[in-house]
Amino acid sequence: MSIIDWYLVRHAPVLGARENLYKSADEPADLSNHAALDWIAQRLPDQAQWFSSPLQRTRQTAQALRERKQVTGELITSPELTEQDFGDWYGLEFDKLWPKIEGLPPHNWSLLAADSTPPGGESFTQVAARATSFLEGHVGDGSTAPRVIVTHAGVIRAILGHCFELAPDLALNFALDTLSLTHLQFSAKEFRGGHWRLVGLNHVLPD
C-alpha cells in the first residue's frame, strides 16, 4: 500500500482575540496575512481530500487556501475536528478566568491539564477521543489520496498524540502556531516503527 500524506493546517488567527482568549466558540478568522496563506498553499498537494472543522475560522482558512490552489473538489466538514469547547469560559478576560483555573491540576505547557473540564464544556481527553475516531475512520477508507485537514491546535495535538501513542497530557506539549503546517505520513505495513511518521511539525512562513 502506498504511503499517504496527511497535512494538518492550523487556522488563521482569530479576529479580535486577546491573550488567545476568544469571545465565543465560533469567531471569524483574520485572513490578512496573504504571504503566510500563499506559503502554506504552495506546500499542499494539488490533488487531495480536504477536511475542515465546521467552525468559521477553519472553513474560512480552508477556503482561502483552496482558492489559491484552485481546488474544485468538496470541502468536507466534520464535527469531530472541532476545537475543545470551553463552555462558560468564553468571553472572559484572563483576570476573571484565572481564579476559576488556579485550583485545577497544573500543566507545564497548557492552560488546562488533559482531564480538566470547563463548566459547560469538554476536556482535552474528550477532544482526543473524537479526533481519534475521525482519524481511524479515514485511515481505513480505501483512498490513497493525500489528506488536507484545516483544524485547531487542540485537534492537531490530539491527532499527534494518537499517532505516536502519547498520553493526553503529553500530547498537549506540542507548540502549534496559527497558520502553521504539520505533515504526517501513514503506512499500513505492519513493520517496526509503527504506522505514522512525523515529517514536519509547526512549519510557518519564515521571518
Q: How is this structure best described in words?
A:
The protein has a single domain (about 5-205), classed as Phosphoglycerate mutase-like (Rossmann fold, 3-Layer(aba) Sandwich). The termini are far apart. It is built from 6 helices and 6 strands. Helix 1 packs across helix 2 and helix 4 (about 125-140) crosses helix 5 (about 155-165). It is of the alpha/beta class. The chain has a 6-stranded mixed β-sheet with strand order 3-2-4-1-5-6. Helices cover about 30% and strands about 15% of the residues. It has helices at about 35-40, 55-70, 95-100, 125-140, 155-165, 170; strands at about 5-10, 50, 75, 145-150, 180-185, 195-205. The protein is globular, with a radius of gyration of 17 Å. Strand 2 (about 50), helix 2 and strand 3 (about 75) form a beta-alpha-beta unit.
